[in-house]
Fold this sequence. Notes:
two-stranded antiparallel sheet; 21 helices; 1% strand; globular; Cytochrome c peroxidase; iron; heme; peroxidase activity
Amino acid sequence: MNKFFVSVAGLLAAGYLGLSALAWYHDTTYAEGAAARPAASPEAARIRDILDRNACYSCHSTKAVLPPYASLPGIKQIAQFDTERGQRYFRLDTLYAALHDGAKPGEADLAKLERVAQNDTMPPARFRAVHWGTGLSAGDQHTLLDWIAHERKRWYATPGVAAAFENDAVQPLPHTLRVDPRKVALGMRLFHDPRLSADNTISCASCHALGTGGVDNRKLSLGVGGQLGSVNAPTVFNAALNHAQFWDGRAATLQEQAGGPPLNPVEMASVSWEQIVGKLQADPALVETFAQIYPDGISGPAITDAIAEFEKTLLTPSRVDAYLRGDARALNSDEAHGYQLFKSMGCATCHVGANLGGQSFERMGRAGDWFAARGGALTEADNGRANVTHDPHDVQAFKVPGLRNVALTAPYFHDGSVSDLREAVKQMAQYQLGTAPSDADVDALVAFLNALSGTYTPSPALAAQP
C-alpha cells in the first residue's frame, strides 16, 4: 500500500514537472480582462512581457484562469496556496489595465513591483523549482527598475524634490493645491458649523479637530446623542492627497466624504439635506455668501463642495519635507536612519507618496492573523473594503492610512485598538511585513514618524474671517 502511494505521488510529481515546464508560463489563453488585451506602447509591452514570462498574473489576479492540470490532486492545493498568498500581497489587475490604457500606474503598485525587482523575490523559490526558466534576469530587473523610475518621475515626483529622492516612493508635500479662496473661507465656516447635525451639537471639527492632529484622539468617535461610531476617525489633514476617502474607500472624493457624516444616523444624524439647508437659510449672512459663490444658493452639493475646498488647504509640511527637498540637516541621524529603515524594511511599499499612504487598500494581517491576535468578536467594520465592493477578496482590507502627524493621532488602526506608536510599529512589522525589528530599529522608525508631525498654516483666504 505504501509503495502504491509513493508511485502515485511520483507520477503526480512527474506530471506536475512536465506540465509545468510546458504550460504554466502566463498565456492570454488563461487570462481575462486587462491581462488579455494588448499593451499601450512598446515600453508597456516590454513590462508585460516580463510579467507574462514569469507567470505573475496566474497568482496575482482573481481573474486568471489556470491551466487544466492545476486542478489535479496535490497540485490543486499548491496552486490554491500560491494564488491565495499572491492575491493577499499584490493584485496586478490595475497595473495590467494601466499598461493597456497608457494610464498612470498605481503609486503603491510601482512600489511593490520595485521591491520585487530589487530583491528578486518573485516568483518564489518553490515555483521556480518546477517552472524552469522563470525568475527575473539581470536585464529584466534593469528594465523594470528603469520603467518604474520613469513612471514615478512622470506621474508622482513632487516639483522641487531633491534629485537624491526623486525616485523614492515617499515624496514631499506640494506647497499648495489649487483652490477657490471664496469657497475655502465658506468651507471653513461650514466645517465648524454644528447646524449640519440634527441637534446642532456636532460639527465636522468635533471629530476632526485641527488643534489635535485632525482627529479626536478617541478609539471611536461620539456622534449625536452620545452614539459611538464603528471605526476610528482618520485625520482630515492632508486627506486631499488620498486616492479615496474613509477606511473602506466608499467615497471617491473629498466632496463625497464631506457628504457622508451629516446624514449618517450615528454621526451627525440629519435626516436630509433639506433639513440642513432649512436651518442655514435662516442665516441671512450665510445666504448672501452662498449666493455670491453658488448660483443656486445653499444646497447639499454646494455645502460639500465648499467643505472639500477648505480641506484641500489642510496641508502640514514637516521637517521630512525639508529633508526630501534637499536640506540634509532637517533630520537628525536617528530620524534619517529611521527613514532608511522605513524604505528598506518595506514600509514604503504601502505607505507611499506625499501622504505616506492613502493610495491603496491592503489586507490587515498580510503576513499573519492580526485579527486573531487582537481577539474579540469580528464586527461589520472589520470587513473593510468588502463592505463596499462585496468582493470576498477585499475582506479585512483597508485604505492604507497616511502617516503624516501620526505621532499626534493615537489611537491607531481602523478600530483604534492600539494606543502606543511603538506598539503599532511592531504590530505592523509582524503582521504586514513578517519581521521583528530590534528595539533600536523600532526607536529609529518612531523617531522618523515623529518627524512627520507638521505645521498647518491657515490659508490666506481665511485671514479676513472673524
